[in-house]
Amino acid sequence: MKTKVFVIGFHKTGTTSLELALKQLGFKVCGVDKNLLKFKNKEDLNEYIETKLEKWDAVQEMPWPLIYKNLYKLYPIAKFILTYRDSEEWFNSVVRFFGSIRFPFHKKIYGVPCAEGYEKEYKAIYNKHNMDVLNFFSDKNNFLLMEPKQNFNYEALCYFLGIENLPNENFPHERHHSKRILPNYKLYRDLRSLYWNFKKNY
Fold it and tell me: Can you state the angle between helices 119-136 and 87-98, rounded to 10 degrees?
């Protein structure tokens, strides 16, 4: 049985690249699970997590990072990875990607209607999460901080996971979104958001 691996960094911090790398290493990776936010009782949530993770080796994407303490309690010897970007760079990426689309899922996380226009609120949640995670794992050796352009590579990941044979290929990087020019323009984002808010009845 593989050691569980929990990616507990927020979206737009390189989580997709890390997911692809973990899959290349043979891990079955679970992504978004909105059910995690439905539980009011901790015991019920933990029971759901254990049942869910019977079929998965790793998790990434929201809202998994929000329940890292539950994951640690249930799997104290698992490997935890915090993916991190500078908050300004992170928020700009979030706005380019999500604009002012009013995802109910995101509102539960950030407490505001959308990303566009709510920089202060988004950054506050993001920064608090990262600081809390770093403090929580400060005395634990099953934790790794990974930052794009620094240690996003198979060497760092495999060393942390105790994997000796490195893949004979470059570490995956999801670049296609960053190459798109139109999302840099607010008018385009507004029109795109208007379309999706109408289509989804947000």
Answer: 130
Instruction: Report the C-alpha dihedral over residues 182, 185, 191, 195, rounded to 10 degrees.
Output: 50
Count of domains observed in the chain = 1
CA 64, CA 22: separation in Å to the nearest integer? 16
pLDDT, one tens digit per residue, over 43-71 is: 999 999 999 999 999 999 999 999 999 99
pLDDT recorded at residue 2 = 78
Q: Which residues contact 25 (CB under 8 A, 6 or more apart)?
A: 157, 158, 161, 163, 167
CATH code: domain of residue 173: 3.40.50.300
What is the model's pTM?
A: 0.90
DSSP state of 145: E
Per the structure, the complete domain to which residue 152 belongs is given by 5-200
CA-to-CA distance for 92 and 143, rounded, in angstroms?
27
